[in-house]
Write a structure and sequence with these properties.
seven-stranded mixed sheet, alpha+beta
Length: about 200
């Protein structure tokens, strides 16, 4: 295995965009996201993180093939779906760094790559002027949802070991199309946070 985990920028990022877009669709089709994505949207979404000041895309590759990725950027550069819950409760956006997502092919999970993703994103956050906290969100699904994957293991324990905790009352809503649906619906997203 020739596994590398490093930020992708410039021409390397441009070359990786199609593979990263496919990777996001593949991983987010799984429970609990059940996301029906499109390659065009995904490529634009990922590239946007690279264009943001202090934005970072960390990519895990094995023999040159993208097997995982994680994004992060200052919270104040995100869209209103992400920032509104923080504004409503009085957070200063400039003090927060937003971790967009981590996606990793199933065969590579449990090997420490998730920790490497957090380590590299936290390092970028710490180097950004005025940033004091890191935050991310996870979808909330009903525990009795019939689509639930019985083999799914929530990441809550992993996140807590990294020092993150859910912030009571800090819930946003993101919209996407679930697999098999024809229209987007809003999903509640619980924000987690830790002081850096």
């Amino acid at each position: 295995m020739t596994l590398r985990i490093e930020p992708a920028t410039g021409a390397a990022l441009q070359r990786a965009l199609p593979a990263l877009a496919k990777l996001r669709i593949e991983v987010f089709r799984e429970w609990p996201y059940l996301y029906e994505g499109s390659l065009d949207y995904e490529a634009n979404y990922i590239e946007r993180f690279a264009r943001l000041k202090d934005g970072v895309i960390v990519v895990a590759t094995d023999a040159g093939e993208a097997v995982g990725a994680a994004t992060a950027a200052p919270l104040e550069g995100q869209n209103p779906d992400v920032t509104a819950p923080f504004v409503e409760v009085g957070y200063e956006l400039g003090k927060l760094f937003y971790f967009g997502e981590s996606v990793l092919k199933r065969a590579y999970r449990g090997r420490g790559i998730g920790h490497a993703f957090f380590d590299q994103r936290e390092a970028v956050a710490l180097s950004s002027s005025g940033v004091e906290f890191a935050t991310f969100s996870g979808v909330l699904r009903a525990p009795d949802d019939p689509r639930r994957d019985q083999n799914y293991r929530p990441l809550d324990d992993f996140w807590r070991k990294r020092g993150y905790a859910p912030v009571e009352g800090l819930v946003g809503n993101y919209s996407w199309t679930d697999i098999g649906d024809k229209e987007q619906t809003r999903k509640p997203m619980q924000f987690w946070m830790r002081k850096l």
